[in-house]
Amino acid sequence: MNDKSNPEWDDFLRSIGSITILWGLAELCLDAIIALFFKKYGTKLNEKQLPKMLSPKIKFANKCFSRISALGEFKTEGELLLNRFNCLGQKRHEIIHGTLTQLPQNGTAMFAKLDIIDNLHHHRSVLFDGAQSQMLIQELQHLGNDAANFANKILGNLL
């Protein structure tokens, strides 16, 4: 990059930063829910460790919603929220854990992503579209807000 301002590069960096920060806020709310569930129901469900990664968190929360009758009134809303975490988490993961291979041009950039399939790395390209990133940012804003409201509802009823 040269010393001159590049609005497209600035917009790209702003989008990546927004995705990172908004995801962190949303996942913090999920972590609060998971921590409470683990403390209250972990031993009842034979869980030995607090889940740390997104997929195990979602699996554990779904297990709680399925097996703990006290969570019945939250089950539908909780499962829908977890599905959104799963979907948006995958989109976020591709960008944040990819490697930029093509600088933004005309609103798009390219990332390289390595997936592990059958213990082998497989390369694929991930297109970062500026318009789609704005939709992702909006979805993450809604996810964070909904996760915070749900966490407050859960914490208020179970503490």
How is this structure best described in words?
There is one protein chain. The chain has four helices and three strands; from the N terminus they run αααβββα. It has 159 residues and is an alpha+beta fold. It has a domain at 9-84 and 130-158. The chain has a three-stranded antiparallel beta sheet with strand order 1-2-3. The relative contact order is 0.17. The model has no long low-confidence stretch (mean pLDDT 93).
Quick rundown:
With 159 residues, the protein is of the alpha+beta class. It contains 4 helices and 3 strands; from the N terminus they run αααβββα. α1 (7-41) packs across α3 (75-96), α1 (7-41) runs parallel beside α4 and α3 (75-96) packs antiparallel against α4 (130-158).
Jot down its keywords.
159 residues, alpha+beta, three-stranded antiparallel β-sheet, 4 helices, 3 strands, 63% helix, elongated
State the distance separating the first and last CA atoms: 52 Å
**C-alpha Rg, in Å?**
19 Å
Number of helical regions: 4
How confident overall, as mean pLDDT?
93
Query: SSE order, as H and E?
Result: HHHEEEH
The major sheet is characterized as: 3 strands, antiparallel
Range of strand content: 15-25%
Low-confidence stretches: none
Strand tally, please? Answer: 3
Q: Can you list the strand order of the major beta sheet? A: 1-2-3
